[in-house]
Amino acid sequence: MGAGAGFEALSCPTPAPAGDAILLGHGSGGKMSAELLQRLLLPALCNPVLDRLEDQAMVEAGGARLAFTTDSFVVKPLFFPGGDIGTLAVNGTVNDLAMGGAKPLFLSLALILEEGLPLEPLRRVMASVRAAADAAGVSVVTGDTKVVERGSGDGIFVNTSGIGLAAEGVELSAAYARPGDRVLLSGTIGDHGIAILSQREGLEFGGAMASDTAALYPLVEAMLRTRAAIRCLRDPTRGGVASSLNEIAARSGVGIELDESAIPVHDAVRGACEMLGLDPLYVANEGKLLAIVGREDAAALLAAMRAQRLGLEARMIGTVTGAHPGMVTMRTALGTSRIVDMLAGDQLPRIC
Amino acid sequence: MGAGAGFEALSCPTPAPAGDAILLGHGSGGKMSAELLQRLLLPALCNPVLDRLEDQAMVEAGGARLAFTTDSFVVKPLFFPGGDIGTLAVNGTVNDLAMGGAKPLFLSLALILEEGLPLEPLRRVMASVRAAADAAGVSVVTGDTKVVERGSGDGIFVNTSGIGLAAEGVELSAAYARPGDRVLLSGTIGDHGIAILSQREGLEFGGAMASDTAALYPLVEAMLRTRAAIRCLRDPTRGGVASSLNEIAARSGVGIELDESAIPVHDAVRGACEMLGLDPLYVANEGKLLAIVGREDAAALLAAMRAQRLGLEARMIGTVTGAHPGMVTMRTALGTSRIVDMLAGDQLPRIC
């Protein structure tokens, strides 16, 4: 699961009284998702592995140290520039494994199909699953298919769960950031969310936009090879870069200062965001990662990232500080400073 | 995933031409599910692990031999006598691991929630997940939550995937049945399907009916401890006992002869089936298993099963033969013989 969206994203809370109902914002990966987890899901499920609170569980089985993760995909529309729900289902899950430093090995694939779905889109999605799995070097080894009545689903929902092999001696956590660390970003932000939105709403923004969906393990492998002091890796999906960094700041009890001018955004994405009143910092990415790294290793790690296809546009975008623990701030292009809060409510539903 | 319902249930086929659309019967666990797998899903996904064609994938990671499985749950209604979607989601997945002889260890839990769902049923389902996981000795270590608009889902859909540790020296397969082997059944059949149906339709059948949902690993562990020559274990879920045995007969190239009088069915279930024109052999179970075992060990294995709470009503219900390969037949209570085919079409949709 993506940053901010998973059961692991928060510490074990006490149950809250009953009330209300599920809203779209509860799936946003922002504050409302966090509240649902804190108040309802975690009180029920709390256990020592879940309490480690990362995007993937690290578990031991038969002497092997494994990463394990799950993600359901309900993206709308099913097909969009740069990929489809099948591509996304493979890449999203292998990326959650990779963010733990684990090499993705095996996937499960479970489909919930709506009665009346033509077979042709299903066939296309399965071809995408296969192609993405091959590209990511993983096998789909087990599966399941359920069918619900017309009007009880929406075409195709996909769940992928994944098993990865932990890298020896590597332990990453959103709780490990320290003042002085640097924040690296592997490339442009907002591409996925804006591609989905423009496809869904039939909007044209004067530029070709495509999802950045990609399997990030090759980049992670190259980064680990440098032996840099990497504290944490996150793929900023639902809730975007802002939500992922807020999580890290909160978990580590540090502040994070971003430099707006250093954050790469495609012109077309920037234009679309301006027209729609969206902040690219909150828009979902599906092929980018954030790394928190010790200051002394930041330059070498950045160079290693830029040597990879998936990190060509990598940038150093900020610094971890001891000031304002739990808070993310940004020096704007105008020289002012502003607070970058977690996503509140529901920016773009069904983005993944 | 349950018998007959999984991607592993059939051998690698060649793609068929496009056509048609998804029908409810494609989720039945019977012939239509098999066709969808054969014609569309397997041609896309085929690989050596998937080709082993069991209810769970057996994989190796970091030197450990693991079982891995996934199942989505769309049961309607969410709550029914004997359990709810949460109970089912835990037991269904741990049972698929147990049918490979593996000890269930870790679960993932992914929710697809419909906008407008009140929080109270979600809270109850999560409490059931926790209770069932505790009872089964597994931990939910990773999770995900998605929300879809009102009318694009149906309350709560749950996916659970699971990792289990393979038992040393144990290799079970639907392809291992041999003429002379015996067929054992751990208890009464049809309880789950009839409990769901009576709850859904508001029917009363003059008897208290409850789902048999239960985690079967303790029974499996006791069975493995006997060192009996167990060829195969299956939990006859969607498609029922008939579909599971047809799969084994086809995969092993053997015939299976059942003795109708030996198959335990609760009176209330039998009465309900008669009123509704259902055959209990095709009705789903969620806490029962079938075992194929070498003749010489059958009596000892049966005794071991009957010593367990989950196997108190275990019976020997049939024999594997060399006659009629791929076919299941049954000597009826009247002394005649009839063919027991795989479930055709769609008996009871959304049973799990």
Name given to the CATH homologous superfamily of the largest domain in chain A: PurM-like, N-terminal domain
Strand order in the largest sheet of chain A: 9-11-8-12-10-13-14
Give the name of the CATH architecture of the largest domain in chain A.
2-Layer Sandwich
Return the CATH topology of the largest domain in chain A. Answer: 60s Ribosomal Protein L30, Chain: A
Order of SSEs of chain A = HEEEEHEHEEEHHEHEHEHEEE
Give the SSE layout.
The structure is a homodimer of 352-residue chains.
Chain A (H helix, E strand, L loop, with lengths): L30 H15 L11 E5 L2 E10 L5 E2 L2 E2 H14 L4 E12 L4 H18 L2 E10 L7 E10 L16 E4 L5 H11 L15 H9 L4 E5 L5 H13 L2 E5 L7 H10 L13 E4 L1 H12 L8 E7 L6 E4 L5 E3 L13
Parallel strand pairs in A: 5-6, 10-13
Antiparallel strand pairs in A: 1-2, 2-7, 3-4, 5-7, 8-11, 8-12, 9-11, 10-12, 13-14
Helix pairs in contact in A: 2-3
Task: Write up this protein.
Chain A has 352 residues and is an alpha+beta fold. Helices cover 29% and strands 24% of the residues of chain A. Chain A has two domains: 7-165, PurM-like, N-terminal domain (60s Ribosomal Protein L30, Chain: A, 2-Layer Sandwich); 182-339, Alpha-Beta Complex (Phosphoribosyl-aminoimidazole Synthetase, Chain A, domain 2). Chain A has a seven-stranded mixed sheet. A five-stranded mixed sheet of chain A has the order 1-2-7-5-6, with helices on one face. In chain A, strand 13 and strand 14 form a beta hairpin. Chain A is globular. Residues 1-6 and 8-18 of chain A have low confidence and may be disordered. At the A-B interface, helix 1, strand 1, strand 2, strand 5 and helix 3 of A face helix 1, strand 1, strand 2, strand 5 and helix 3 of B.
